[in-house]
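Changelog note: in this version the structure field was regenerated for every chain. One regenerated record is shown below for reference.
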Amino acid sequence: MSELASQKSGIENTESIALDLDEAGVSVDLPRPEHRGDQVQGVPYRPVEFRDDDLPTALERAASWLRSTQQWLGEPVDVIAIHLDYDDGEGSPYYDVKLLCNEEDLAGAPIALREQASKTASG
């Protein structure tokens, strides 16, 4: 069971909605592919979003974030996809660049693993 916070009609109050999820983090009621070779994968990736009216600016910010995150992480960030979309709604930035990144990288798991290995090796 997981919870999803939702905002009610623009009001600051949020309410939790209980979700019945399986081990892959998808609804237990989600129709599964019928062919035995097909599957809903439980890949832990999270989008990191960069929005701007100027596409090169959004891409430059994404590249800058990747560089600083890789420096912090001590290794390349696992990016499985780059998604480009647009929003032509009034008042919204037109371009929406999303990097689909491994959530363990974003949580700093490689750093923790190196620190743990360092402690084990020294002690």
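Spot check on this record: The two ends are 40 Å apart (CA to CA). Residues 1-29 form one domain.
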